[in-house]
Amino acid sequence: MLKRLNFLVPATIICFLFLSFSYKGEERYVKVQRVIDGDTFVIESGGKKGERVRLIGIDAPETRKTARKEVGYYGQEAKEYLRSMLTGKNVKLVFDVGKKDRYGRLLAYVYIGGKFVNADLVEQGYAVTYSLAPNVQYADFFIKLERRARVAKRGLWN
């Protein structure tokens, strides 16, 4: 019995700490400086460089070749679409469970006016669904939008 308690107590503490550091539902209003690619942009944060934001639940094709990835089909179009929508505008960031990725970028669902940007990119065929736990709040919704875009042959599905 004591061995079981020795395991349960630390496990319970770890779960409590994880849940207490959840950012789900937290909102932040920011101004977009520039767009990096179809799923990443930079916001004003007081410094020269700004802070990078990665859209949760989606993945747009790459716009430049890196050591691990090639330039993707429809990548430039996705970047331009996001650039025309966000550059210089004020947007609302809404966080899920995890607030940053392993590269230090903020992870957010993004809204401009009444438009849900993450969903719009998938629905218009500029991005595909890419859900990574624990940030999976809209995973099923994005899958439905991607199916519709494929059937309608929108964007990269054309």
Task: Explain what the structure shows.
With about 160 residues, the chain is α+β, with helices and mostly antiparallel strands. The chain has one domain: OB fold (Dihydrolipoamide Acetyltransferase, E2P) (Beta Barrel). It contains 4 helices and 8 strands, in the order H-E-E-E-E-H-E-E-E-H-E-H. It has helices spanning about 1-20, 75-85, 115-125, 140-150, and strands at about 25-35, 40-45, 50-55, 60, 90-95, 105-110, 115, 130. The strands form 2 sheets. A 5-stranded mixed β-barrel has the order 1-2-3-6-5. Strands 4-8 form a two-stranded antiparallel sheet. A hairpin with a 2-residue loop joins strand 1 (about 25-35) and strand 2 (about 40-45). The longest helix has 19 residues, at about 1-20. The relative contact order is 0.17.
Observed structural traits:
158 residues; OB fold (Dihydrolipoamide Acetyltransferase, E2P); two-stranded antiparallel ribbon; 8 strands; globular
Layout of secondary structure:
Layout: H1 2-20, E1 27-37, E2 40-43, E3 51-55, E4 58-59, H2 75-86, E5 90-94, E6 106-112, E7 115-116, H3 117-123, E8 128-129, H4 139-152
Parallel strand pairs: 3-6
Antiparallel strand pairs: 1-2, 1-5, 2-3, 4-8, 5-6, 6-7
Helix pairs in contact: 3-4
